[in-house]
Amino acid sequence: MGCMVSQLASKFAFFPPSPPTYQLKKWDDGKLTVVSTASPAVSIPNAADDNSLDVLVVDTKHGNKIVAFYLKNPYARLTLLYSHGNAADLGQLYDLFVQLKVNLRVNLMGYDYSGYGASTGKPSESSTYADIEAIYECLETEYGVSQEDVILYGQSVGSGPTLHLAAKLPRLRGVVLHSAILSGLRVLCHVNFTFCFDIYKVYITLLIMKRNL
User: Fold this and answer.
1) Which PANTHER family match (predicted)?
2) Are 91 and 122 in contact (CB under 8 A)?
3) What's the Cα-to-Cα distance from 130 to each of 22, 105, 106, 138, rounded to whole Å?
């Protein structure tokens, strides 16, 4: 019974856009760029001509390949790691990323969960944890970003992986939760108790982190 309910909660937790709003294209020099497939077309610059945008494919420990956008701001001191909400992919979020990068004066790393956009695999609670861990490792190894200079931003479903990573990184600059969920089951029904098979127990993670401050 618990497994069935957990699967139901997962089913209602993930709604990747179908079809995705973008595809990846590789140039002769091996550099990746993005081609919009949305109607009307999503405005995404040619990454081969835009030095402020890196299009990345990152391997996770689950064997999936996830797509990420890294937007650079020459005036930035901090980096925002953005975990997006449901029913969206990077193609729809690019304009928002640009606004955040400019207005907040940050570098920004946004990524698509497994099964979203052009990322491979299927979305699940555990895969999103592997996704954000791989993206953070990429920030460390490829861009030399330390956790003291990282702000985690999680919207809706993105609050789950955001707090998962935050619990592992005690020296983060900050954590922002936008329309955070309490848990997978508490999105579906109004209950005030915890099941062991629930997903994204965000409220419990928040309580633990608060007590450790």
Assistant:
1) ALPHA/BETA HYDROLASE DOMAIN-CONTAINING PROTEIN, ALPHA_BETA-HYDROLASES SUPERFAMILY PROTEIN
2) no
3) 23, 28, 24, 12
The model carries a pTM of: 0.83
Q: Does position 207 have pLDDT exceeding 50, yes or no?
A: no
Q: Residue 147's domain is classified under what CATH number?
A: 3.40.50.1820
Q: Return d(Cα 69, Cα 56) in angstroms, integer.
A: 6
Tokens, residue 212: 């450790």
Does residue 210 lie in a domain region? no
Amino acid at residue number 160: G
CA–CA separation, 147 vs 134, rounded Å?
A: 14
Burial class of residue 17 in the structure, from the number of CB atoms within 10 Å of its CB (0-12 exposed, 13-18 middle, 19+ buried): middle
Number of domains the chain is built from: 1
Which one-letter amino acid corresponds to residue 129? Y
> What is the C-alpha to C-alpha distance for residues 149 and 135, in angstroms, rounded to an integer?
15
The answer to whether residues 174 and 152 touch, using CB atoms and an 8 Å cutoff, is yes
Range of the domain at 168: 2-188
pLDDT tens digits along 92-148: 999 999 999 999 999 999 999 999 999 999 998 889 999 999 999 999 999 999 999
What tokens does 68 get?
Answer: 């990420």
List pLDDT tens digits, range 31-70: 898 888 887 766 676 655 568 999 999 999 999 999 999 9
